[in-house]
## 1
Amino acid sequence: MSVYVITGVSKGIGFELVRQISEDTNTLVIGLVRDKAATEKKASLKQAAADTAQIIGDRGVDYLVANGAFPSHFDAYDPIGNLATKPQELEAVCSKLFQTNVVGNIHLFNLFLPSVMQGKVKKVIAISSGHADLDLINALEVENSALYAASKAAMNTIVAKFSAQYKRDGVLFVAVSPGVVEVGHYENVLPEQIEGLQRFMGKIAAYAPHFKGLTPVAEAVRTLRETWERLSIEGGFAGAFVSHFGNKQWL
Ligand SMILES: NC(=O)c1ccc[n+]([C@@H]2O[C@H](COP(=O)([O-])OP(=O)(O)OC[C@H]3O[C@@H](n4cnc5c(N)ncnc54)[C@H](OP(=O)(O)O)[C@@H]3O)[C@@H](O)[C@H]2O)c1
């Protein structure tokens, strides 16, 4: 039996991961959803780790998937220079991004590592974003999502640092982008945001002419899982940041 712990399973990719993985009766899936009040008290993850240890006993965790994240909309459609008119919101969003997407995952990794060490597979997968790839930003001049991208880049660095420490114990830490996935993020785009969205989509089309639009979440999750099965320390992926294809092709 394989044991999975996955964060951010209330909706989107996390929800679909739990749905697909739990179809296999030979798996035990523990999905974590945030309790906003407890999150504010910073006690929820510690409790979740203790509760998980109770459920799984000495079986350990095979796959720890850091999926939950704050997908900021504030910076999603505008170049960074345009955010200057709202400095307070910029600061608040940066703090929330760093706290959720970086610090939250540091706590997650530290708290669950003893269970991962007990597991057989020993894979820690952080769901990242192609937005964090410097070569892609520079080649396509991707202006939007600067703050979100920076939080994911910081998370990728943290993943590499955990890998540097725990690779020798056989734990694979890896950051994987899921591609551009349909989870309803663009359902409430405001008229003034449409231009920025179209600019971004135009750049995607130039980068990947085969791209036919947002990937349905079920398909994206299947691809993601197939890829993380292939990733290993022996294959050279310890601490790496890769796409859903397991390479640097982001779409
Ligand atoms: N969809 C894409 O195209 C895409 C592309 C690149 C990367 N990603 C990454 O894929 C992962 C899943 O995102 P998604 O697309 O499925 O988005 P989503 O549908 O918005 O789901 C995000 C999940 O993260 C949780 N979350 C949000 N803020 C949180 C916080 N402050 N603390 C703890 N949990 C929080 C949400 O819980 P609540 O319901 O409580 O808010 C939700 O379960 C994220 O890491 C995202 O960055 C997605």
## 2
Amino acid sequence: MPGDADKVKERLDLVELIGEYIQLLRAGSANFKTRCPFHNEKTPSFYVSKERQMWHCFGCGEGGDHFTFVQKMEGMDFPEALKLLAGKAGIELERYDAKLESERTRLLGLLDLAAKFYEKVLLEHPGAQIARDYVKTREIPETTARAFRLGFALDSWDSLSTFLSGRGHTQDEILRAGLASRREGARGIYDRFRGRLMFPISNVHGHIVGFTGRVLDPNAKEAKYVNSPETALYKKGAILYALDRARQAIKRAGYVIVVEGNMDAVSCHKIGMEQTVASSGTALTRDQLNLLKRFTSNILISFDADMAGESAAKRGIDLALSEGFSVKIIRLPSGVGKDPDDCIRTNPEVWKKAVGGAVSIMEYLFEIIPAGKDLSTAEGKKDVGNALLREIIKLPDQIEQTHWLGRLASMIQVPESVLRERLPSGKEKPERREDPSRAPAVTSRSQRLFEGFISLLLTFPEHAPAAIELVRPEMLPDEEIRRLYTHLIIRYTGVSGRAYAGDFGLEIELSPLERRLLLQGERDFEGMAQAAESEIRKYAREVRRDFIVRELARLQSDMAAAERSGDRGRADDLSRKYHELMQTQ
Ligand SMILES: [Zn+2]
């Protein structure tokens, strides 16, 4: 009887599963590739095999099956990944449930219960009239409010804590969920969120991990937005508001809209622009970009009018650019309010047009940096020129650089050649971040030959006998490859004599090398079934020749040593072996 993990693998197609996280491109008839989500790269070396139901990145060497992918992607351990995938596959788990009734699960349950409480208060409680009025003036339809599970925290010190305690949660748990604070110098706790419209914050799976509370009284002295504190579940810089509801739309649209406030995101969803997420007021972080990378590489960022050139926001954009995203800026026209939510309530068409007219970051900077500067003065030219040159330097593409240099030259009326002198030479140019420490070790020609040989065998096991005839395991100098080859020989010629390719994967635990070579074979040799046998023979002969050349060299040096030490017998022996080997070549 197959275990839970195998049942999950049987029911869930790996290509579809990975496709939910990142966009996959076809590579041949049954394989898919993409840029690796686990290391920074420009060209795709992340492969997924539909037939084998396994994945491998030729860039960083990561690879595996459904579970390893989800574990890496979600930062989960195996039981968590199993639970997630079993849920997707509609499989009831028996064995792991007790283990998973962990703190994490209990906290998720508590947070969900809190969201239910806030929701109900917003809908029904007499004390929530101010919030119901606010939602109405914000023109949020009930369906949207329900979809986002908007709620209200009463202006009370203990209504939520009391409710949760009554449902069997301890004070300690309520504290750890970030929903209450400890009373200073006294026993007990008090509600963290009071008198605020509540936005539950979900992780990418739709599990509530925290809240944002927005103050409703415009004269209130407290901060307009308050977030949950960092907890075991909620990491502010690693969450994008509404991403759980936006992921499908982002993939369909081919881009994501990033707005600043949660209310902006809700408004965008309300008018059908569901490819919108909110950064909740922070500059984009690397964690957030990694989340987005699963769905798209195109970001449209909405800047509030007063955010122009703000350095924190700009840092987020620079980070996105260096991570290989294409970034465009949505500019709100003046007179339609200060943020997307205002604009949408004024006129949704204006917002849609602003999204459609998003410009590249360079275009945007060329608009805002010179704004208000007098370009007829030397001072103005210097300021604007230097500021824009700093941006032009960062561009990775020379043609693009030249384009913007030309624009700058004519804008400040300074010859392009003068500006160009200010650019650092090619070598000093800041490179995009690629992590060299994770690149695979340089493989010698021989190593490539051996790997090609094995990957061919794994791809076309039916031709293995032709190879086994020619290549003995000891001809392979690399220990890991030799062990794998020996293993293959046993498998192909083994007692069971069972066909190999078909029941692969479920039966045997693959070594990382084997997995890599399997996918490498599919990548490099796909569609050459006709020529497979002759190709295998060719590789086998090469491997053999490689061995003989090395062996001859070894015998020669041994012979020289034997002669030096006067061991005639041994020298003759070696000489005979040497000539025998020469014959076989
Ligand atoms: Zn990789």
